Amino acid sequence: MSGTKLTINAETQLYGILGNPVNHSLSPLIHNTLFEKYKINAAYMAFQVETNCLGLAFEAMRAMGMRGANITIPFKEAAVNFIDEIPEDADRCVGAINTVVNRKGRLHGYNTDVTGFLAALKEELGFNPEAKKILVLGAGGAARSVVFALARAHADEIIIHNRTVKRAEGLSDYVSEYFPKTEIDVIFDLDSAGKKKPDLVVNATSFGMRENEASPFNLESLTHQASVYDLIYTPVETPFLKQAKKLGYPHANGLGMLAAQAALSFELWTGKKEGVRETMLAALKQCIPS
Ligand code: NDP
After folding, report:
1. From ligand 1's centre to the CA of 205, what distance in Å?
2. Domain that holds residue 60
3. Which of 39, 201, 241, 258 has its CA 20 to 30 A from that of 120?
């Protein structure tokens, strides 16, 4: 937890992230940096929760008066079953939460990934999805937030490709129910995706995180320039982003989204907003070797 000087005492408020695995999470670093900056007597820890113990973890959160939590892989969808309320309609329809706020014993759930993704697209790429055509690679938890975000921002067409086709079809059907004005299709043959002329290609798979993994999509198959966003942030430059850079396409990694969604969680817990995202991004860039 470099850069922070937390003093733990009997009044320290507890926050944390529940996930599995969670040992490489950067959330403790960024939230503790901000608690220190604002001199809030709070500490943020990472909790590795066994997959069949999520209910117990939520009971513990209530029993011990934890003030808030983030939820990560693989619990974002299941966590919905253990909270009292999802106050925002927009979050409720996503069916997955990444933030919990404990308000006098009632656990309120939020999804800041959706807004965080849109904020990152705007800040990092100057990209507005309205009336645009977007290719999304992946259909897991992160892709779900990405597709919801793009449809909510009035994208004209979203094309989903996923290794497991059924999962892509499920996602397409689910989001289409809420956003009938956005055309959401599943594509099987990735080689033909380039001819669809997407304005933006998003990697929302985890393919590219490991050393020997290639790019999930050959950007050279595009018939015109597109913006490129990779949700992955370790490594900072995946083979997918390396190719975007080589081709001179506007591109960004997932650090901006990570900071944006974390800043929104922090605001829900503390009410602090000004400069939070920027401070988190700076802390992240300092700790991740490029
Ligand atoms: P999930 O486990 O829910 O989904 C993983 C996705 O990647 C699925 O679509 C899966 O396909 C696909 N995939 C995995 N391995 C391969 C492979 N070898 N070849 C092709 N496709 C593959 O994870 P999440 O959706 O939660 O996370 C996905 C990525 O997004 C992770 O790298 C995560 O770190 C990142 N992320 C970044 C965030 C940020 O703030 N920047 C926020 C959230 C996530 P299949 O369905 O066929 O298994």
Report:
1. 3
2. 13-111+261-285
3. 39
